[in-house]
Design a protein that fits this description.
Elements: H1 15-31, E1 33-38, E2 56-57, E3 61-67, E4 74-81, E5 84-96, H2 97-104, E6 114-117, E7 122-129, E8 144-151, E9 158-159, H3 164-177, H4 180-196
């Protein structure tokens, strides 16, 4: 039988528990920086593939988070692989549970949500939200959210957050896709390819 004079399961109203929880939030706010948190809105889910090809981001919340890997990006860096050049930069972010729920108005972050880093002007996608670690020394639940994020790859998602810095990515990427210079360059490549290759029934390999 445990000692009845020591409490091992602290109630959430306990002053010591509240002090520790408040300190966790304060440390993240002191050493953290402001990010823009974008919740993913699923409009047309595909029950077969388990995805939504029309993801939408129509809300933005300013929230202070602490960068855990503050010296450099985690991950495998820039790689040349079988399928070309890939960038595998990871950013690990920590935020207080109370701070997140107050600012974002959600119970917890979800995989697929986006985080905009104003300093680097990059978007990061939440890939994993760590499960609570430790043995609940104060007898209560999770105090911090730890998120592993990767560099976001734009794929025609809709941005309607009413935040100019964020929504500009939609216009910027569409401008790149419709850029006349890119179109002219593609036409030039196609013309040069026609001069070199000639695919027909008698020349299946296309050599001239």
């Amino acid at each position: 039988m445990g000692n009845p004079y020591f409490k091992h399961h602290v109630d959430t109203g306990d002053p010591e528990y509240n002090l520790y929880r408040g300190m966790c939030n304060e440390v993240a706010e002191i050493f953290g920086i402001d990010f823009v948190f974008l919740q993913r809105k699923i409009e047309n889910p595909d029950d077969i593939f388990g995805e939504d090809g029309t993801n939408k981001f129509d809300s933005n919340k300013i929230i202070t988070m602490y960068i855990e890997n503050f010296q450099q990006f985690e991950g495998n860096g820039d790689l040349f692989g079988k399928f070309g050049f890939t960038i595998d930069d990871q950013l690990i972010l920590v935020v207080g549970v109370d701070t997140f729920r107050k600012e974002v108005k959600a119970e917890h972050p979800l995989e697929g949500d986006l985080i905009y880093h104003p300093v680097s002007t990059k978007f990061f996608k939440i890939e994993h939200v760590a499960k609570p670690q430790g043995f609940y020394q104060f007898g209560a639940g999770q105090m911090m959210f730890r998120m592993t994020t990767t560099l976001f790859k734009y794929s025609h998602e809709r941005f309607e957050s009413e935040n100019g810095m964020v929504d500009d990515i939609d216009t910027f990427m569409n401008d790149i896709g419709n850029d006349s210079a890119n179109s002219d360059e593609a036409d030039q490549f196609e013309s040069e390819a026609d001069d070199i290759l000639d695919f027909d029934e008698s020349n299946i390999f296309g050599d001239k």
